[in-house]
Hints:
Elements: H1 8-11, H2 15-29, E1 33-38, H3 43-46, E2 51-53, H4 55-64, E3 69-73, H5 76-85, E4 91-93, H6 102-105, H7 109-122, E5 129-134, H8 139-147, E6 151-153, H9 158-168, E7 173-177, H10 180-189, E8 197-200, H11 211-216, E9 219-222, H12 234-243, E10 248-251, H13 257-262, E11 265-266, H14 269-277, E12 284-288, H15 291-301, E13 307-310, H16 326-340, H17 355-369
Parallel strand pairs: 1-2, 1-3, 3-4, 5-6, 5-7, 7-9, 8-9, 10-11, 10-12, 12-13
Helix pairs in contact: 2-16, 4-5, 8-17
The structure holds (~{Z})-2-methylbut-2-enedioic acid.
Amino acid sequence: xxxxxxxxxxxxxxxxxxxxxxxxxxxxxxxxxxxxxxxxxxxxxxxxxxxxxxxxxxxxxxxxxxxxxxxxxxxxxxxxxxxxxxxxxxxxxxxxxxxxxxxxxxxxxxxxxxxxxxxxxxxxxxxxxxxxxxxxxxxxxxxxxxxxxxxxxxxxxxxxxxxxxxxxxxxxxxxxxxxxxxxxxxxxxxxxxxxxxxxxxxxxxxxxxxxxxxxxxxxxxxxxxxxxxxxxxxxxxxxxxxxxxxxxxxxxxxxxxxxxxxxxxxxxxxxxxxxxxxxxxxxxxxxxxxxxxxxxxxxxxxxxxxxxxxxxxxxxxxxxxxxxxxxxxxxxxxxxxxxxxxxxxxxxxxxxxxxxxxxxxxxxxxxxxxxx
Length: 372
Ligand code: CIZ
């Protein structure tokens, strides 16, 4: 479902006025509403967030709240995860339904099923295949993974999830969806050489590679990637090393292999924030991730004498995250307020995951969270 055009009243609303609408609705709704702000959201949204964090942590927090209305300021798959984990009497809303994720869209369920059938028909060791999906995936994909004995993972716990699988079965073969880079970077860190990773290109016969490679590899990577993190490259790292030799480089593991290898550190959004925040005054950082996060860190840490910049110097904004602006938040908060007041309003932007999909997706999330 796409985003309907904002009513004119909100479309033309000045930022201050929209912020006042959000403030008022929030005050009136009190504990009935919780606003979640992903690390990649604009400042004008983060200002109203009750909680900020990565997608999974935010969904867990929302489920722990008694709030009836969860407004997830992030992208569509995140709102779906919140609905999967929410209780039956909670409703999840996304301010702009066009806030999608191009990486999540790269693993479509029909293509994944074609791949799975091919592997079942052609691989001798099919029974050892465990599908793993990064949380950046649709509820359909999480459900597929859950149904087939697999796991979800985040960029913070990917290594622990793969370890858990290989501890249970040292011959396990991971089908990693949808982000090739997180899969490759993590598996390599865990000792899998690059030539022992196969690659599956959706839409190509047999995934476009050799059957022998699929047969021998303990990891099969799906052909997905993040359009923001793909923009970081080794040349930018070399330029930083040349211009500022004390500057440390930290990148997200959605960056490509060479970039992660050339950087000093890599980690999820929460790990990046923690490492940089805890660094000594006088530290200098070039960060390879989305710019809203980097700019906020820069402004917050400047008074502490910690210098922060985006790797490469050019802002790298996630255009879909950016779709949630203060006008969309004002509109959705006003709708929720009127709904709660008993007004007969047409409801938009509620994200609802089908019950069957939800049950299977929960299996994948639960396996990820299980201790061993
Ligand atoms: O899970 C998230 O929120 C994403 C997309 C990345 C991260 O590293 O936190």
